[in-house]
Amino acid sequence: MSALRLISNRTSQQALANSDYTWEYEYYEYGPVSFEGLKAHKYSIVIGFWVGLAVFVIFMFFVLTLLTKTGAPHQDNAEPSEKRFRMNSFVADFGRPLESERVFSRQIAEESRSLFHFCINEVEYLDKAKQSQKGPGLESNIHFQEVPRSSGMFEEDLNCLTKFNIPNFVNTEQNSSLGEDDLLISEPPIILESKSVMQSSHRILD
Amino acid sequence: KNISDFSLNITDCTQVVVPEEVFFTVAAAGILENLLVLIAVVRNKNLHLPMYFFICSLAISDMLGSLYKTLENIFIILCKMGYLTRRGDFEKKLDDAMDSMFILSLLGSIFSLLAIAADRYITIFYALRYHNIMTLRRALVILAIIWTFCAGSSIAIALFSYEAATVIPFTILFPLMMFFILCLYVHMFLLARSHAKKIASLPTTTVHQRTNMKGAITLTIFLGVFLCCWAPFVLHILLARFCPHNPYCACYMSIFHVNGTLIMCNAIIDPMIFAFRSPELRNTFKKMFCCAR
């Protein structure tokens, strides 16, 4: 390593006449380093460095934990399906392989709808006409609050997904995921079994 | 070798030696693991996505780091056994080449992590246009640019390592990149949180008020592992440049081999926290090993 070479060169310059320039891959030759009269412990840099690093990492962890607190108020809800709708990890459920369920349940509808929450930023760029047809969650932040919870919405959602060419979300193999939970874990946001979704995802991939 | 005894106390800082078996085991494990990731991505057509290409880039740079350490150890052994001359010109050139390989590995790691973070950022903030923004071709172009730049810088740094001017930018680049990556991820977190709040404001939804630890833990692991594995070595380079004869610095530099082993541990851990998180990649592995039987 170049650092090795640096040390070796310096050492060789100050070397005694009878010692060779032991080439760079040898261990360090520190030369006339005096260890007398040290005020602090000799490994103080090592200890200080590692303690500082640990403190920094822990500090970073706490800051991130604070950032990910949602702090939203509790709300009661009678519908059992919505109890599964997790606020903190609104795409976290996407990471769970739905192939174990293999049914199109309301749960999938809920999760696919929460997918649109990510697409909110993109809404302004999209065709208004399409949005007005498809409605849920795609027009603006305000509109998605009006998402109806009817059972027929699921098919519409799928159509929305196909129309808007959502990249890689509706896909069996996924790149980066999107929720707080799985934000940095590359698990599929949605694994859906429907043929239409598969077709759309393959189209998206192409 | 008698030099080191000159005017030193009995309590001087001797080199901390890592046994060669440990060294080679760690290096071999790192190389194998990253090679597996590469093979899996190449073989499975479903994994031909920009994100997996960036993960491959990270795997390649990890492999280079481990390879460097392995070759270095082999050369030390060969020197001890006398097969290589110590002052040969060929050895010096080889040393230069290997130094540049190592710096290439470090720069490649940093830029790959940056590319992965940027890719995830675009996925979240430009979700519907992601497929148009980050096409396969663009991803490959970005990777080509990154690796060309890294190769050029590493050769330049290895050739001009005597100048302080090369060491300082090199050590500044490291924390700058980390900070930038951290900012990207924090911004992603903030968006996720604001979205969660909006969802929570829906009248008909239940809210689980809890701190989401998993994301924070994951990000801390990402950046913490990278920092803990590379920062010791970067500090070593700084100290070697600026205070080689200071006893405190010398004591820090005596743990050089431990720092090197840490870098190879990074090569082992990185695939676990990036590549193996993907179920598709794991399935590809299973298929590969099942077919091999």
Automatic annotation (TrEMBL), chain A:
Transmembrane segments: 43-67
Subcellular location: Cell membrane; Endoplasmic reticulum membrane
Keywords (A to Z) from UniProt: Cell membrane, Endoplasmic reticulum, Membrane, Transmembrane, Transmembrane helix
Membrane topology reported for the UniProt record: Single-pass membrane protein
Entry GO CC: endoplasmic reticulum membrane; plasma membrane
GO BP, sorted A to Z: protein localization to plasma membrane; regulation of adenylate cyclase-activating G protein-coupled receptor signaling pathway
Keyword field contains Glycoprotein: no
GO MF assignments: corticotropin hormone receptor binding; signaling receptor regulator activity; type 1 melanocortin receptor binding; type 3 melanocortin receptor binding; type 4 melanocortin receptor binding; type 5 melanocortin receptor binding
Entry similarity comment: Belongs to the MRAP family.
Protein name according to UniProt: MRAP2 protein
Gene name per UniProt: Mrap2
UniProtKB/TrEMBL annotation, chain B:
Pfam families in alphabetical order: 7tm_1 (PF00001)
Matching Gene3D superfamilies: Rhodopsin 7-helix transmembrane proteins (1.20.1070.10)
One GO location term (cellular component): plasma membrane
Compartments it resides in: Cell membrane
InterPro entries (alphabetical): ACTH_rcpt, GPCR_Rhodpsn, GPCR_Rhodpsn_7TM, Melcrt_ACTH_rcpt
PROSITE patterns: G_PROTEIN_RECEP_F1_1 (PS00237), G_PROTEIN_RECEP_F1_2 (PS50262)
Membrane-topology descriptor: Multi-pass membrane protein
Keywords recorded for this protein, A-Z: Cell membrane, Disulfide bond, G-protein coupled receptor, Glycoprotein, Lipoprotein, Membrane, Palmitate, Receptor, Transducer, Transmembrane, Transmembrane helix, Ubl conjugation
CDD domains per the UniProt record, alphabetical: 7tmA_MC2R_ACTH_R (cd15350)
Residues of the signal peptide: none
Transmembrane annotation, as ranges: 22-42, 49-68, 102-128, 140-162, 168-192, 213-235, 255-276
Domain of life: Eukaryota
GO terms of molecular function: corticotropin receptor activity
Domain G-protein coupled receptors family 1 profile, residue spans: 33-274
SUPFAM superfamilies, per the entry: Family A G protein-coupled receptor-like (SSF81321)
Record text on subunit structure and interactions: Homodimer. Interacts with corticotropin (ACTH). Interacts with MRAP; this interaction targets MC2R to the plasma membrane. Interacts with MRAP2; competing with MRAP for binding to MC2R and impairing the binding of corticotropin (ACTH).
Record's function text: Hormone receptor primarily expressed in adrenal cortex that plays a key role in regulating adrenocortical function. Upon corticotropin (ACTH) binding, facilitates the release of adrenal glucocorticoids, including cortisol and corticosterone. In addition, MC2R is required for fetal and neonatal adrenal gland development. Mechanistically, activates adenylate cyclase (cAMP), the MAPK cascade as well as the cAMP-dependent protein kinase A pathway leading to steroidogenic factor 1/NR5A1-mediated transcriptional activation.
Family: Belongs to the G-protein coupled receptor 1 family.
Protein name: Adrenocorticotropic hormone receptor
Species of provenance: Cochlearius cochlearius
Gene this chain is encoded by: Mc2r
